[in-house]
Each structure stands twice: as structure tokens, then as C-alpha cells.
Amino acid sequence: MEYRELSNGARMPVIGYGVFQIPPERTERCVRDALEVGYRLIDTAQAYGNEAGVGKAIRESGIDRGEVFVTSKVWVSNMNYERAKASIDASLETMGLDHIDLMLLHQAYGDYHGAWRALEEAYHDGKLRAIGVSNFYPVRLMDMCAFAEIPPMVNQVETHVFCQQVEAHENMNRLGVVHEAWGPFAEGRNGVFVSPVLTGIGEKHGKSTAQVMLRWMMDRGIVPLPKSTHRERMTENLDVFDFTLDDADRSAIAAMDGGHPIIWDHGSVKVGMGLFDLIANVQLQGSKLY
Questions:
Q1: Where is the site labelled Lowers pKa of active site Tyr (predicted)?
Q2: What mean pLDDT comes out for the span 194-214?
Q3: Is 48 a catalytic site residue?
């Protein structure tokens, strides 16, 4: 496995395994398979509801804990100092781990500055080895980097061939923030797996379209988080260290960029109102994720 060094010196694998939308009852098996085929970065979140399965698979894997880089995320219903602080402890307890390698603020809603203070405190206490954000657009990220005691080390955003995040990526590089990609396969939209461009590049290198997309992101210094519940696909997605793309390949892929998100646009009022309704419903029921 190859690694990226974060701004605090922590080493993070250059590719990870994401568990978004994997049902809790299948998570342990999937994470166990991912670890067995060679993944060492596992990405979950409070909102996914499967932290327990992630933790159990890691604890029972037989792999030294120091070799596995675990990421989770503070959900928006916990986005202030007190709730974020409590939710970090809840995530640790749910996973049965003594530390989380990277904790992110899931979205830039609510009192995320207060929540960030809770992350900084937990980082100083050794509960978190690194801290960062997710779905923070460039202006929000610059705000955090300018005024936080500890600037974010990672920003995880929707990134794939149809939403290449060129300006956001340049901004992250300037700020010393590592760019992670959720949805690296665009959730299969726009016929991405049968794209003539990607298929042609794959045939040239003897690789699948999925492997081409992952290699393209890694070549840009982006850490992709592919997801699959099938062991053979997990193995295929990890087999991307024996080839590189050339300038013609990169130019052809660059031309596929639509310049905007197609899965979840956090700058959209419609999306924001949908999230507002979700949080209001949770509060109305008198419950919360933690």
C-alpha cells in the first residue's frame, strides 16, 4: 500500500474502502473481506448506521490496529460543541476502538465551528489522530483553515469524471488539505462503466473502466473511496498500482467534466431544504443519531 502524509505527519493510504449504504447486517463481512484483500483505509460515518460492523471487523481481523486507518464523520444533528463532543465518544464506543484515525465534520451545516472545537479537543486528547471536513466548498474550507486552531487536514467531496472538482482541488492543494473522493464511480450514472472514452483507455492498459477512474484520481493526488459488496470487485479496485495514464488519457478524461455535482449538490437550496426537513423530523420524534 502507498500512503499520503497529512499536514500533521500522519500517514493515510492513497485508496480506501467506503461503506456508505452498506446495510449494518452486511458491514462486518464486507469490511472483513476488504481488509483481507489489502485495504487499510476504511471510511464510515455516524449517519451510515454501520460503525459497529466496521469496528467489529477491525477488532477481529488480526491486523495490527496501527495498520488500519479508520475514518468516521460527525453528523449534522451533532453539529455544535457539546453534541459533537458526545458523538465522538459514542462513535468510539460503538466501534469498540480506543481512537479514530480521522474524524470529519460531515457537512457544513449548523454550528460547525463549535463542532470543530470538539474535534480539536479530542485530537489533543489522543482520541483522534487527524481531523478534517467533508462536503466543504472552497469558501467554507478557506474559512476553517484561516480561523481554526488546527486547520482541516482532509476534505472529502463528491469527485468523479463528471465532477472533477478542478478549482476545489487546486484550492485544497494551496491550503495543504488532502482531497478525498466520495462517489468515485459517480454511482454508475451517465453510463460511466460503459463510457467509450474510459473503455478505450482501459483496453489500452489492460484494465477495467473502474480501475482507470481510480488511477486517474490517484494520479491527481486524490484519495478515492470505492465501495463494493463483492470481494472480487474489491480486489479489482485495489489492483491499480501497476499502471499509469498518459497525457492523452488524462486529456480525454478531462473533457468529460461537467463542472458540477450530479449526486448531491450541497450548494443547492432544494438539497438544503431536504436536509432541513430530515433534521426537523428527527427532532420531532425526540431522537437523534447519537
A1: 73
A2: 98
A3: yes
